[in-house]
Write a structure and sequence with these properties.
Helix 1 (about 1-15) runs antiparallel to helix 2, helix 1 crosses helix 4 (about 60-100) and helix 2 packs across helix 4. The protein is about 80% helix and about 0% strand. It is mostly helical and about 190 residues long.
Length: about 190
């Protein structure tokens, strides 16, 4: 039964995650944290972090990690297949339709209407992760300074500043932030 749940959950995620992996994050969070209860929000955040650091699309990496967590290697295969299958079907159908009807204003209007929704989904995922990283899972008030994890704020601010000022490879920022987290949290 859990295999069917994994397949169906990630099939839905793959079917409705227009805009790529970041747009899929709120859908994955809803399915695996809120609806199914397979992961806590902290575990979900950890999986997003690991998925971000490993090669490949973030939604597929997340499906694989969730599948392993829930049902081992067979669960990883089923969840990954569920995530990939809708894309394969949709891309084949859309490639055929786009080639045939790309000049129609209806098609251009549809694509123009989807862009703002994709941006909103990406922003939603980013804000959720930012709140989790800076306030933690037990947040009750975003304005209470005692709930803010100031060490996380400092690492975030330093990483953001370095990215904006010198534009280094983001992997270096990830590695540096991870090393800073290990160092500072082990001392705290």
């Amino acid at each position: 039964m859990v295999y069917l749940q994994l397949l169906w959950s990630f099939f839905q995620i793959g079917l409705f995650s227009f805009g790529g992996g970041y747009a899929a994050m709120p859908l994955i969070q809803h399915q695996v944290v809120e609806l199914r209860g397979w992961l806590t929000m902290t575990q979900f955040s950890d999986i997003v972090t690991i998925s971000q650091m490993t090669p490949g699309p973030i939604a597929i990496n997340s499906a694989t990690f969730v599948g392993i967590r829930v049902a081992g290697l067979p669960g990883a295969v089923v969840a990954t297949l569920g995530c990939v299958l809708p894309s394969c079907i949709i891309v084949l159908a859309l490639a055929f339709l786009y080639e045939r009807y790309r000049g129609l204003s209806l098609v251009q209007g549809l694509l123009g209407g989807l862009r703002p929704a994709v941006v909103a989904m990406i922003a939603s995922a980013g804000i959720s992760l930012l709140v989790l990283a800076l306030w933690g899972e037990e947040v009750t008030s975003l304005t209470d300074p005692q709930q803010v994890q100031w060490l996380s704020v400092a690492i975030f601010a330093a990483g953001f500043w370095v990215l904006r000022k010198w534009k280094p490879d983001p992997i270096l920022i990830l590695l540096g932030s991870g090393a800073a987290g290990i160092l500072f949290y082990s001392l705290a």
